[in-house]
Amino acid sequence: MNTNVIKSLLLLLFLQACDKVELLPITSQEIMKIVEMKKDNKAVLLNVWALWCLPCVEEFPMIVEFGKVYDDLEVIFISADFEEQFNEVSSFLKRNGVNSTSYIKNQKDDPFILGIDSKWTGSLPFTIVYAKSSGKVIDSWEGIAPESKFKSAIDAALEI
Description:
By secondary structure, the chain is α/β, with parallel strands linked by helices. It has one domain: 3-Layer(aba) Sandwich (Glutaredoxin). Helices cover about 45% and strands about 20% of the residues. Strand 2, helix 3 and strand 3 form a beta-alpha-beta unit. Helix 2 packs parallel to helix 5. The longest helix is centred in the N-terminal third of the chain and has 16 residues. It is globular and about 40 Å long.
C-alpha cells in the first residue's frame, strides 16, 4: 500500500476518533467516587438531565459554557435516558460542544437517586454543586434555574 494512502487513512481514523463524545454507563456509587477524587483539585457541578426533559435541554448550553469559563470547575453530565438511547445522547452532547467524558445512568432509579442525594425527589433537571477544597455540597436544586443561581453556587464552591 502506498505510504500516502496509509497516512491519509491514519489521519481519517484520528479525526473520527476526535469527533466522538465519550459517554460511559455509570452508577451513583461510581459517580460519587469521581466527585470525591476531584476534591482539593476542582469544584464539581453535577447535572442530571434527559433528552425528553425540555428544561434540561434548555439550560444545557449554559452549563456547558460554565465548564469553559471556570478553570477550577469540573462539569459532570449524567443522562437519565435509557441505555438504548446511547447514540441519541451522544449526538446531543456532541452538538452542544461537550468535550469531556459524560455519563448515562446504569442503575435503577431509586438506588441511583438516593445514591446521589437523599433529598433529591428524582425530578429533572437536578443540579448539585460541590466545594473545591472540602468536597461538601454547596447547593442543590431540582428544575431549571437562572444563570445567577448557578454562578452563586459555583462562586461559593470555588471559595470554600
